[in-house]
Amino acid sequence: MVEIRSQAIHLEPRKRRIEFLYWEECQSHDEALSRLRKVLTEDRIDAEIQIICVQSEEEARRLRFTGSPTILVDGKDIQPPTTTNYAMACRAYQLEDGRISPLPSEAMIRRALNRES
Amino acid sequence: MANLKIGDRGIDFALTGTDGKKHSLNDYSAMHRAVIFSCNHCPYVRAWEDRMVAIQRDYAAKGVQLIAINSNNAEQYPEDSFENMKLRANEKHFNFPYLRDEDQTVAKLYGAQRTPEVFLFDRESILRYHGAIDDNYDDPNAVKRPYFRDALDALLGGAKTPIPETQPVGCTIKWKSS
What we know:
The complex is a heterodimer. Chain A contains 3 helices and 6 strands, in the order βαβαββββα. Chain A has helices at 29-42, 57-63, 106-114; strands at residues 16-22, 47-53, 70-73, 76-77, 93-94, 100-101. In chain A, the strands form 2 sheets. A 4-stranded mixed beta sheet of chain A has the order 2-1-3-4, covered by helices on one side. A two-stranded antiparallel sheet of chain A has the order 5-6. In chain A, a hairpin with a 5-residue loop joins strand 5 (93-94) and strand 6 (100-101). The longest helix of chain A has 14 residues, at 29-42. In chain B, the strands form 2 sheets. In chain B, strands 2-1-5-4-3-7-8 form a 7-stranded mixed beta sheet, with helices on one face. Chain B has a two-stranded antiparallel sheet with strand order 6-9. The mean pLDDT of chain B is 96. Classes of the chains: A alpha+beta, B alpha+beta. The interface between A and B is medium-sized, with 17 and 14 residues.
């Protein structure tokens, strides 16, 4: 007789690695960071946020920074940019309703955090 | 910091618009005029430009003329080129002149720093409002303080502008290197 046992395997949710890149002159970064933190708290996502202030055009090119704010989740942009113009500039996000905004929406942030890496 | 203070007289200019014609502030001297420093690429402008079109539509018959000016360095920001300005004006059905300030003289004279940045002059060319269009670039349905509209209503009603100056919110004007 074969005894079959099942064992539940509990996996620790992996800590997400988030990079928040911004340029000081673009005024939306405070609100964007606030939205990111709100989604992390509401969805109880464990994450480490590295906040990077881009301070020169050379640094923008090195970091492939297409504008402020940029949020990378485990290395992936929450909305892949359509430009390779790396510069200290403000970033345009296309929202769910088709409008353009300097801010990513909470829904956009949430989708990126919840997708499989 | 803008070079013009509330109560100062407007500075005239003569710039070419996307319609191929030269436009000046004094061309519209019978009207209240709003000079708005703007551009193509800036996401704040893109968030607000439908509201600019709506304001022109709502106030045209009341004697108000918006005039948008793009002073950005198009070499560094090709999206802000004159050809792209024409495309944007057509795409968004701009109902106001969209002018090119190629050598950035007008932006420097006004002391403009951001896009969009509003300078509202009355019929006497006196600056009556300077600053942002409203208090919410992200969500037009969540605007609590429509600063520009409020200033226009006050002007048209012969009243004092309730908030004559606000901090412009937007991208920095992209200057050419000297």
